[in-house]
Design a protein that fits this description.
Layout: E1 9-12, H1 14-19, H2 28-38, E2 45-51, H3 63-69, E3 77-82, H4 85-92, E4 100-105, H5 108-115, H6 119-135, E5 140-146, E6 150-151, E7 155-156, H7 159-175, E8 182-187, H8 194-207, E9 213-217, H9 224-233, E10 238-241, H10 263-272, H11 281-295, H12 303-306
Parallel strand pairs: 1-10, 2-3, 4-5, 5-8, 8-9, 9-10
Antiparallel strand pairs: 6-7
Helix pairs in contact: 2-3, 2-11, 6-7, 7-8, 8-9, 10-11
């Protein structure tokens, strides 16, 4: 347990991750309401929308409207997701905080399903994005390897494949003389279990010991919290999460796709372990209840039902 971080950064993705998956339309005003409520909890980074093809992800057709409507709070970063240069250019037309990102899938089949390109073609396309970032002085702050632990289309992913993808991403950054502040390993469709988390993190660290790693965990099969604990024990200090457990990947190839690890549940576990999150748990619980009210059906978060332990302590 000696590698536990003293503090973790929670990157809230619920508004984007969650509302992209809802079958029924969610009012733009309700999306903004949740984003603004989350910004009052102590969270420092909220992924609000994705700039993707509305024909493929109709829940994000109002991305520009939502981004323009947010009343921003000082000290909070409001970000968006895009998969290509066109999406990034759309994002630049909004008041969101824009940073460059690059991403590649450990699964070739998922790459084609999610990005519309295989690995080689995707890397080529991201060269164009990186060149645009350099030209316009846009900081490139993170990279991701999606389906880093398994894929419903291709099966289990070995740690050696993850290392290969990380090498490709770092090589891409090196072409432009750019550092990589953080790399996220993503359990996009919920294949990971703690041994797989340890294996992938260990393999990447063995090759690049100074590279800061984060985790993007989905709770498709109920292992997200165990996977987060393994990550914490290996010193991981940044996690993507979703209020109330909202969301899921629309291209997972599986009807049971679930959202990111639940923000308030993860924050509760960290705080109980003496790891600072900087968030107000009671305010997060209220956000989770608001999210459930907005989508109109039960969400998987547990803390919003059980509450914290503070009122029970003697």
């Amino acid at each position: 347990m000696s590698d536990l971080p003293r503090r973790v950064h929670l990157h809230e993705e619920g508004p984007r991750e969650g509302f992209q998956m809802e079958a029924g339309p969610i009012a733009s005003a309700d999306k903004v309401r949740l984003i603004e409520a989350l910004a009052r909890t102590g969270l420092r980074e909220i992924q609000c929308v994705s700039f993707v093809n509305p024909g493929r992800v109709p829940g994000m057709a109002d991305a520009e409207l939502v981004a323009q409507s947010i009343r921003k709070r000082q000290g909070v970063r409001y970000t968006g997701l895009w998969l290509n240069l066109r999406g990034m250019q759309r994002a630049l037309g909004t008041p969101l905080d824009i940073e460059g990102t690059v991403s590649v899938s450990a699964s070739e089949a998922f790459s084609v399903r999610n990005y519309g390109k295989g690995t080689a073609a995707l890397l080529d396309a991201q060269r164009t994005t990186l060149a645009f970032c350099v030209e316009h002085a846009i900081a490139v702050t993170r990279a991701s390897v999606t389906t880093a632990f398994g894929c419903n289309l291709e099966g289990a992913i070995c740690a050696a494949t993850v290392v290969e993808r990380v090498s490709q991403l770092l090589g891409l950054m090196d072409e432009f003389g750019l550092p990589l502040p953080i790399l996220r390993l993503a359990d996009t469709v919920g294949w990971a279990q703690p041994n797989a988390i340890a294996s992938a993190i260990g393999a990447v660290r063995e090759r690049w010991p100074a590279l800061r790693l984060g985790l993007h965990l989905h709770d498709t099969r109920g292992t997200a919290m165990a996977n987060a604990l393994m990550g914490l024990q290996m010193g991981i200090d940044t996690f993507d999460s979703a209020c109330a457990g909202l969301g899921g990947c629309p291209f997972a190839g599986h009807t049971g796709a679930a959202g990111n690890i639940c923000t308030e549940d993860l924050a509760f576990m960290c705080e109980e372990m003496g790891i600072d999150t900087g968030v107000d748990l009671e305010a997060l619980i209220e956000c989770a209840r608001l999210a459930e009210q907005i989508v109109g059906h039960p969400l998987p978060g547990k803390l919003m039902r059980a509450g914290t332990l503070e009122r029970l302590r003697h």
